[in-house]
Amino acid sequence: MMRAVEQGVEPGDLAMLGRRAGRAEWVAAASFLAEYREVKEQLRPTQFDSAELGAYAAAIVRRSVHDPDDARALGALGDLRLLVVDDAQEATEATAALLGAFAARGVDVVALGDPDVASNGFRGGRADLLGSLGSVLGGVSVERVDLPVVHRGRPAHRELLSSVTAHIGTALGGAHRAARLVAPSDAPARDADPLEPVLGIEAPSPAAEGAWIAGLLRERHLLDGVPWSSMAIVTRSGAELPGFARALAAAEVPVSGGSARVALRDAPGSASLLAAAAVVLELWPLDAEAATTLLTGPLGRLDRVGLRRLRLALRHEELAAGGVRSADELLVEALSVAGGFATIDAPAGRRANRLAGLLDSARRAAARGATVEELLWLLWHDSGLESEWAGQADGSGVLADEANRSLDAVVALFAAARRFVEREPGAPARRFVGDVLQNALPEDSLAPEGGAGAVVLATPPALIGREFDVVVIAGLQDGVWPNLRPRGTLLHAASLSRAVEAARAGMPEPEAEPASAVRASVRGDELRLFALAASRAVRQIVLSCTSNDDEQPSVLMGFAPVRPPARRRRPLHLRGMVGALRRDAAAGDREAASALAMLAEQGCPARTRRSGTARPSRRPRRRSSTSNATPRRSCRSRRRRSTAWRRARSAGSSITSHSRRRGWPRRSARSCTPSSRRPRSGRARSTSRRSGPTSSGDGATSASRPAGSPNASVAALAG
């Protein structure tokens, strides 16, 4: 449909072209296009998609030469004398039509671009626009200037790009590829750059690939001084970005642009508020499933174990009273009224009782006629999630990233609620909640993502006009990049432009392109994407892939003959390093204990409150009446733990053993200093906490990273 609109083909003309070319799919598309226009004209007559908007603007500019009304519609653009187009290789037919319309008004056009890095081919982009600019502008003479020098990259980068572009069709005759790398004033420093210009990574699994990349980026940042914002990871498609974003977050590498956009009903932060509002407004019945969803969500804050204990407590009370109702019925009844869990003196009961009171307050507000914005604000403010998520978002790591995503979803939900109230002040709250729960599309957002101080995760088109010191081209798998499968085999949209040109010139229908030509065109588009990503690098290009029995590297990995050295003994992020040092110190390594003492002197505790792991509780957890007692440890177990404690103390640090045998609570050391946690009677005593040591990406037990950790100490201890 977009190609038809860009070519100025009406539904009737499209059907005629389909019958002429023997393509029934074009005839069917013409019928759908006619119906689509009728419906849009009735519901949204003033809205256009990108192709329609370009065609509409070009028509106004073209008619403005003779029509005074269209000339007045141009406004200040009517006095335009020069039009400069950057990255002209990304222009579509709609852009070309607009340039031709301005050229007809006598406007001079200057177009700049490189057809070897065009990335818009799958959207109808014309990589050959610069070569055919004269015909686009109405047959005027065009002066061509080839820029002779390149100001970005290193000689090895130019060799790589030359090898890649040699397999791409020459849209401009290939003369532009003769540009040489300029010798800047800092040429000696560039030649002495310690970074390998092109590096390759072959990992045994996708998880290992993400860990390798994260470790490499941390090395560049800590050891080579490359800012986070001067590094980028590029993948063939956006579907691969969330996986790398999770791998980098686990290694405490700040990222931007890697999170997948989801609908408000699916985002965990906003989904909990929508579920509570749906129950309050009786859009959803409060049954056992809805009660379980609310209790185990962010509003209820119960895990599966806590929910099971809550159900058992309700069931015990029912049996003691001589009742026979099931746990599901009791759960729904208790959640339906305020104070329904008041008789259960346990953490799970108190949390469930707060949720029941919150739902009761929301019901009373809805009965008073509160707007959807007021209702959602009551659920959000009284739940206490604001302070909890804000505190977690101030830290770093996986938990902080999840808190930030939840806060973003809540902000988007309130923005949508505000727009709904402003547009329809008297509309009921039920309609907004119902519409959002039925909408599977993510909300539009014009807010820029915070990229300062973060590694950029993007696809090649998002890197146009940007440069980075280090560019990692990830996911170079066979069949993924380059992906040589033909495009548009269902509707054959690529053949429409040739059919239109032949029909308008009175020529017979052109023959279908052979399979070899189609494959060459697809290969050219894939290599252009790769060349675009590689051309953004200033100091280093890193190519990475997964190589195992199921996944094979791409042929593009052949451009990186150099492989990085073996991975470091200890990770370069504080959580993983502290965990590895604690593990080694518990095994009797005095060097590791000394390193931990040095970290303590630098102000790096083994665990902090604002970190990437869950917060430690401020008091020992109270045992529920329905919970089982913790089994007593045997004398042999106590002797083993006491021996490990004395060994760690003799090494100069309060390091605990991480062996977690049956019945042993996980130890939680509060500081790296020996005097911070002394055992009584020669035996360590600890309380099981939620934010104990966690597992790092390489399998080592680790503690969370505090904010503002000294990078020099981390780099020195990595080994």
UniProtKB/TrEMBL annotation:
Composition-biased stretches (Basic residues): 607-624, 633-649, 658-669, 677-688
Gene3D superfamilies reported for this sequence: P-loop containing nucleotide triphosphate hydrolases, PCRA, domain 4
Keywords assigned: ATP-binding, Helicase, Hydrolase, Nucleotide-binding
Family annotation (InterPro entries): DNA_helicase_UvrD-like_C, DNA_helicase_UvrD/REP, P-loop_NTPase
Annotated UvrD-like helicase C-terminal domain residues: 166-465
UniProt name for this protein: UvrD-like helicase C-terminal domain-containing protein
PROSITE patterns documented for this protein: UVRD_HELICASE_CTER (PS51217)
Chain residue ranges for the region called Disordered: 599-719
Source taxon at top rank: Bacteria
Keyword Transcription regulation: no
